[in-house]
């Protein structure tokens, strides 16, 4: 299939710029894969679609304040960095903007949240073939421990903020209520809709809730640049699934109960591990490059809760694959549902509404 097959037009005003007043106030489009029919609900109506014995699986990775701003120590030019992955203490791979000016040897003074020069500095030590910079930090024992003071919430570029500082709302709402291990540079956004109270109500219905971890990085949000989707190479992302979650999910599958994945990152972990273990889960700490696109034979996930995704993205390709397992016509069904969502003025992308694919 071609990347252009996953393109669509979205009115700019439907790109959500802020979260709903409360997490549960989002809307929920429910798509029945068997009929192609859509139903329009509120997110709290998710309670109507879960049953005793179901397993709800969520990604509990915590978003770090991964965006840093700085000034060229010699020229005064401005830089913005998005930290991607820690190689070691004060040693990170990052995306730089403007990338061309971030030459090897460039010294950058990191600014604090007030825009003033901080104690921390960064030197561009290396650049790789993908345009990423390797930054060596100095002036601090560990830049990772300073990110709460120096870093900003790494909101995606389609969410516009008109100052470099980040408000308290973004720090709270661009994070799930169940986030634990730190490591993501973008939120697992399907999980943003859940409040602690709603999770307890779901448990009260006899649903088991368990967590996996995938630290969201370039593998999730990097654009597809190749014309043929099979030519796209995913970046590695770190993940972990523990013994408790593996046991619960395996038992559910064995007894014919549903596994409900919250978010495409959760799907990727479950399917990556199942694909290497004859359709079962085992405790795993590893990295994955799994790229799920049509056609795909899902081994673990029965139901998917997700957001509305960007055109031409690997996330849209994954949900298209899930809508028609082992087939290639899921794209048509997804685009029909998206067209309905646009007509009904749903809010799209990270801070937008949700979609339940049954």
Proportion of residues in β-strands: 25-35%
Fold-level CATH name of the largest domain: QueA-like
The CATH architecture of the largest domain comes to: 3-Layer(aba) Sandwich
User: Helices and strands: which structural class?
Assistant: alpha/beta
Order of helices and strands: EEEEEEEEEEHHEHEHEHEHEEHHE
CATH superfamily of the largest domain: QueA-like
The number of domains is: 2
Described by strand count, sense and barrel closure, the largest sheet is:
9 strands, mixed
Question: Which spans have pLDDT < 50 for at least 5 consecutive residues?
Answer: none
Radius of gyration: 21 Å
Mean pLDDT: 96
CATH class of the largest domain, anyone?
Alpha Beta
| Total DSSP helices | 8
How would you sum up the global shape?
Answer: globular
Strand order of the largest sheet: 2-1-17-16-14-3-12-13-15
Helix content: 10-25%
Query: What distance separates the N and C termini?
Result: 24 Å
Question: How does this model look, in words?
Answer:
This protein has 358 residues and is an alpha/beta fold. It has two domains: 3-63 and 173-357, QueA-like (3-Layer(aba) Sandwich), CATH 3.40.1780; 67-151, Thrombin, subunit H. It has helices at residues 143-150, 168-173, 196-204, 218-221, 243-254, 264-275, 314-323, 330-343; strands at residues 27-31, 38-42, 55-59, 62-63, 67-72, 78-88, 91-97, 107-111, 117-127, 133-138, 182-184, 208-214, 237-241, 259-262, 284-288, 303-307, 354-357. The strands form three sheets. The protein has a nine-stranded mixed sheet. It is globular and about 60 Å long. 41% of the residues are buried.
